[in-house]
Amino acid sequence: MASTSPSPASLSTPLLSGSIAPARGANGHGNNSHRHHHPHDDSDAAASVCGDGGGDPFAFLSEDRPPRDRGASPADPFRNATPADPFRNATPAWGGGVYAWARTLLLLPVAALRLALFGLAIAIGYAATWVALRGWAHAQGRSREGTGPMPAWRRRLMWITRISARCILFSFGYHWIRKKGRPAPRELAPIVVSNHISYIEPIFFFYELFPTIVSSESHDALPFVGTIIRAMQVIYVDRFSPASRKAAVNEIKRKAACNSFPRVLLFPEGTTTNGRFLISFQHGAFIPGYPVQPVVVRYPHVHFDQSWGNISLLKLMFKMFTQFHNFMEVEYLPVVYPPEIKQENALHFAENTSYAMARALNVLPTSYSYGDSMIMARAVEAGKDNCSNYMVQMAWVKDMYGVNTAEAMELLENFLAMNPDSDGHVKAQDFWAHFGLDCSPLCKKIFHYFNSGITDSITFCQFLVGCAHLRKQPLFQGACETAFEKCRDPETSDISRGQLADVLRLSMLLPSDDGMLRLFKTFDVDGDEKISRDDFLTCLGRFPFLIAFFAAPINGEVYIEIV
Asked: What is the rounded distance in angstroms from the CA atom of residue 265 to the CA atom of residue 273?
């Protein structure tokens, strides 16, 4: 296995090959006589070093091939010429043709009555819940870990709220709901999982099962809703906190193990989709190792897509109020049991459940995740077009490269600052301008690493996976350490702006003064006008492709043109 902290000798592969050759002094470092050449030779030397004549700028990091050469994989984002969008609502914003306008105008009086019923049902349900929770110590404030089950008489009182929930569904146009199959006994399957398309499913399951749910901590502060879900003895989780996720799994296990608690309901996708795909499942429902009953929900429609995708809540509610009837189908599937091999439990358990639900829905399971919805939402917020082009199949990226959503969002901010076009592509000139550099021959080679040189632009997916692939190389961390040691000032143990400029000259990069300042600020993470070791490693961790600029000092080589 390759060492993660290689010596300079282990990184001796030249930056490029073919038209150049290394010149070494007796001590193995570059001969300074080759560094001073006539200014008018710079462009020719740069072309010789970094021209279009082939060569991998990252060959010194690993023998691995770049990500574009990997074997075909159905989850590989590079293979998706036209990425799917599991979050897009297909209903036109306000149009929809003559029929849609005529139906809306005709049903406006009905919508007013439905709104009144909705408000009345909310008020009655809230009042009943308030009475059911009053005086119960376990419901004071937020639900706490280790609380006991709700007493039977309080649960019976909650039937008023459950009936109110059915009235809410009626007000939204769900006059009847087609059901197939039936819930398995709680003793057989204490955990229920469902696909998540709209805000309608939680209301339905509240009426149908009155389960304990797993919910975001932010929902506790919602008016009316916070009180009602508190009565369900909600398990709160902060999806970005490992400690919170671990505590939530422990609570799921505790409540699933006790038949005095209701079933535990989870939406393992973690967000709503348009129902035409299943996105990657979170493993919280499967880690405890109890049998799970999957439930699939469908919303057959012709004119109105009821999914809560890229549409506001108020607009979706208005469209529901102005439909003659909204169709909903709920199918309870056979119980799925955990695999016998404990070590493979959560992963295979989640996959088996996902495949069972995908077959029932006749849809494709994908490697998109909640992280993709965050990426797309940020692109929408930035005013970009075709925002689905920014998605990367985050579950696949995380499994393959260990990149989390926070790291992807940080890279996205930089990508959005590179002036992507209407299709979400960034050209080489805009890419390097973000770092204060011109598109030199070496920069072109680095850029072509992301897209095989097939096009003159890259997508965010190519940018993210390319960076992740470089960080994963076995020699990358050692190369970063070696580069800093070779470039730092021996007295201060820092890198000054002048020293960074000298390194760039070795790679035939001659940025302008403004460009040099911008690149220096990129490396100077803490803004103290010097590049410390932490600054240097942090910057290369964010933008690992910049390590190519330091190949010459890493290898102890100076490249000259062969005349």
From this structure: 18
What band does 137 get if pLDDT is binned at 50, 70 and 90?
Answer: low
Strand segments (E) across 120-241:
178-180, 191-194, 212-216, 235-237
Backbone angles phi, psi at 213, to 5 degrees: -115, 160
Would you say the C-alpha torsion 345, 346, 348, 353 has a positive or negative sign?
positive
Collapsed DSSP state (helix, strand, coil) of residue 13: coil
Q: Does the structure show a pLDDT above 80 at 16?
A: no
What is the reported pLDDT for 256? 92
Q: What angle do CA 399, 213, 195 make, to 5 degrees?
A: 55
Strands (E), 109-216: 178-180, 191-194, 212-216
CA dist., res. 444 & res. 462, Å (int):
15
Q: Which residues lie closer than 8 Å to 522 by C-beta, 6 or more apart? A: 435, 436, 539, 543, 546
Average pLDDT over residues 281-305: 91
Over residues 300-321, mean pLDDT: 87
**Gap between the Cα atoms of 45 and 43, Å rounded:** 5
**pLDDT tens digits for range 219-256:** 766 777 778 888 888 888 888 888 888 999 999 999 99
Residue 202: other Cβ atoms inside 10 A? 21
Residues in Cβ contact with 378 at an 8 Å cutoff, skipping those fewer than 6 apart: 390, 409, 412, 413, 416
Taking each continuous run of H as one helix and of E as one strand, the counts in the chain are 20, 13
Q: How far apart are CA 146 and CA 149, in angstroms?
A: 10
Task: At 68, list the tokens.
Answer: 């574009």
Closest C-alpha among 298, 290, 128, 96 to residue 197: 298
Structure tokens belonging to residue 500: 């960074």
User: pTM for the complete prediction?
Assistant: 0.79
Dihedral, CA atoms, 341, 342, 345, 348, nearest 10 degrees? Answer: -20
pLDDT of residue 78: 45
